[in-house]
């Protein structure tokens, strides 16, 4: 029992946002093989589904053609390509829930024992189902909130280039309570609380949360763009081939192109998802820091009340 107490104090410790970032990246680097052994099943499942979704361009185009005349939009191929990327992003957010559930099992072990333990594939998949279900529900709620708020804003303002800054700020604003609620729900002996006082406390540390999210997220996004660049080139080539076919060019892509697209998207998705563990662990340490800070503030206030009463 004493050992767990020491470990908890090691996790629940006041840290700067830079320290949270360093701890998160170091934990990922020091336990790379363990994380891979724990999560390879979810990484393969995610990558396979993303590779299959990458072939949704033609079905998506034919669906849009039933409601929209492409001749009315001069940049319709690029708009349709953007819609495919949004579809892939939504699918990635939802499909990553099982991977996040397996990482959560690792995080629970780290909080309780001080290190990431390998539990074995069978037991891990069983234990990871509960946090994976929660993550899936949270991801759906998060996307729904973003879609509604962003849709209402753009309905009245339009889609001018400056209006997309609203979406960035919206993601940051919604992401902070979302992250804290998710982590508090997934860690041992924690429950989700939607009290307004707790939400206010989260926004009081908005700068630190945003810094950790932005820096770790920027690193992951840049690496993801680098990994996915070949996939984007292949998807763009497929879209151009589709519209050339509609224009009368009957030259179709060879079968080898489909195989190459599947493999490239598969590898890009696997590398990108695995790398997002760094952001997960950085935000995890940020949560531990905020919890410890709240505990110290509460102890200080109790001590002040005791001195005043004395």
UniProtKB/TrEMBL annotation:
Domain of life the protein comes from: Bacteria
The alphabetical list of record keywords is:
Membrane, Transmembrane, Transmembrane helix
Taxonomic source organism: Candidatus Paraprevotella stercoravium
Q: Which residues cross the membrane?
A: 40-59, 79-99, 135-157, 163-187, 208-237, 257-285
What name goes with this protein? Transmembrane protein
């Amino acid at each position: 029992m004493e050992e767990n107490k020491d470990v908890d104090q090691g996790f629940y410790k006041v840290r700067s946002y830079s320290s949270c970032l360093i701890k998160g990246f170091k934990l990922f680097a020091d336990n790379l093989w363990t994380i891979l052994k724990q999560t390879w099943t979810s990484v393969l499942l995610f990558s396979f589904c993303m590779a299959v979704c990458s072939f949704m361009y033609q079905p998506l185009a034919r669906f849009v053609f039933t409601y929209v005349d492409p001749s009315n939009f001069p940049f319709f191929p690029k708009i349709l390509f953007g819609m495919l990327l949004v579809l892939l992003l939504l699918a990635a957010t939802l499909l990553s829930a099982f991977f996040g559930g397996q990482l959560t099992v690792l995080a629970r072990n780290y909080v309780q024992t001080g290190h990431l333990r390998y539990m074995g594939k069978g037991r891990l998949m069983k234990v990871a189902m509960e946090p994976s279900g929660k993550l899936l529900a949270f991801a759906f709620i998060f996307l729904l909130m973003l879609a509604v708020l962003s849709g209402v804003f753009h309905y009245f303002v339009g889609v001018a280039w400056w209006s997309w800054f609203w979406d960035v700020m919206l993601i940051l604003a919604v992401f902070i309570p979302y992250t804290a609620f998710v982590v508090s729900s997934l860690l041992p002996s924690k429950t989700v609380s939607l009290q307004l006082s707790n939400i206010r406390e989260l926004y009081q540390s908005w700068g630190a949360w945003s810094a950790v999210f932005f820096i770790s997220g920027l690193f992951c996004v840049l690496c993801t763009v680098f990994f996915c660049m070949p996939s984007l080139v292949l998807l763009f080539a497929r879209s151009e081939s589709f519209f050339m076919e509609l224009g009368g060019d009957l030259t179709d892509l060879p079968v080898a192109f489909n195989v190459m697209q599947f493999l490239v998207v598969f590898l890009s998705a696997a590398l990108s998802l695995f790398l997002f563990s760094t952001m997960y662990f950085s935000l995890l340490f940020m949560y531990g820091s905020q919890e410890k800070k709240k505990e110290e503030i509460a102890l200080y206030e109790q001590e002040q009340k005791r001195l005043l009463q004395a």
